[in-house]
Amino acid sequence: FSYNNDAMPHAKGFDYNHLQAKHIHFSSDSNNFSGNNFATNLDSCSFIINDRFDLKALRSRVRFTDSLVSIKDLAIVVNQSRLQTTGELAWPLSRLPGRTAQNIACDISPSVVSLGDIFLFQPGLKKSLPVSFAPAEKIMMTGTIRGSLQDFIVKELKLQTSSKSFLFNGDASFRTGDRKNEMSYQADITQLQVQKKLLSAALLRDL
Length: 207
Description:
The chain is mainly beta. The protein is built from 3 helices and 11 strands, in the order E-E-E-E-E-E-E-H-H-E-E-E-E-H. The chain has helices at residues 115-121, 125-128, 201-206, and strands spanning 2-4, 18-34, 37-49, 53-64, 68-78, 81-92, 104-114, 138-147, 151-161, 166-176, 183-194.
């Protein structure tokens, strides 16, 4: 599969306008079509994008409607990262009567996220983080997410790096801004252990 938007230049990180997909595998059951609505239990899915992003496994219950995309009980393995959640992640496609903006309600089961994978997907994030992590680091994480895609909070968040150089317990909230790649965050810290050399200059000034 190949897609190229020649009107857009090539971008660093995950380039949505220039995609080359190969080794595509897809398996599902309980497929249900009703008008414009579709629901399925996605048993397994894998593919490689641009020879850099290797989706090794994807499992979830998926529902598409005219107004909503819903993913429940997501389990995904990409490159060196593994994320598993129980609950719902929803993307409203239009304003739904009677439905609040709270479209994320899920628990993060013990998961592992590679910093190298994050920086590969979004290179600009490395400069904006208040802590300087090596790409080889992996972060073990658990927590409970509530909110929307633009404004959410992670309760009882626990983060610990594979080198044990960083440990965080507490709550964290994230909000996207109006400008591209703009994000604000706030943390209520119960426990924090971090090697001083990892802290950014801006964070050291604020402490």
